[in-house]
Amino acid sequence: MPEDSRTGNSLxxxxxxxxxxxxxxxxxxxxxxxxxxxxxxxxxxxxxxGFGLPVLQYARDFYFPGSSTxxxxxxxxxxxxxxxxxFDLIERMYKKEGVGTFSWVHPRVFNIIYKAGPGRxxxxxxxxxxxxxxxxxxxxxxxxxxxxxxxxxxxxYLLDVQEKRVSVAMxxxxxxxxxxxxxxxxxxxxxxxxxxxxxxxxxxxxxxxxSPWAKVDARWAMLYAPAIETGFRVDxxxxxxxxxxxxxxxxxxxxxxxxxxxxxxxxxxQYMIRFGSLKELIQEGTRSYRRP
Length: 292
Known about the structure:
Helix content: under 10%
Shape: globular
Distance between the termini: 34 Å
CATH architecture: Distorted Sandwich
Strand content: over 45%
Structural class: mainly beta
CATH class: Mainly Beta
Number of strands: 19
């Protein structure tokens, strides 16, 4: 297993057919590739969805993967691994009188779409998840609901443990195109651990200054966990727009990630994620993108 030269802490990687590690608000949602130091638990992932998790945006709802099949359950090692996702989960707001009439979307995607204009008022309601701590009324409950699938995506994770990297290839041929507005691929770990952001433009942010969500104007972006001296860097494909974000709300929401956004016509999204110390990731990124 790869080991950080300073800490000696090894990372292992996991794929599951269910939504493990079942942590926080995203518990019902399937996860991508999960890195862990504790046998596949939420130690590094927290409420995040792991690496390479697809989400579909339609006119009325966001569809999340709620079920899947995998090449192998549990720990995976160097080689070619896959996970097949079904988009059969949406999120709704519940009131005393029943299900609400509109979707409630994960803050990480929600803030990208509704950050300005009329939608700003809707974004502000996401902050109400913390109102109870300030003595205000508790907001309506939000639940994921199983629905008819909007197709499937096939994710391949080519893991190279020795080189500390994984190539993600997302095959989107079998998703329903009618009404589709955007395709997202999320790469998220835990916000408590991953508190520093750096990208190839030289931008450096820490803690709450990372904030959800902001567009990434760089060739690569990374999130780093100082306490364990380990980070991950996402190389951004030319066909995608990237966003950075980090959020902690109570005990249910804790994620820090980089999300890729592609057009509804996208048939495939492919990119590289690299792991390592801060020095390794920055130096390797500088070499990879140095102009001749």
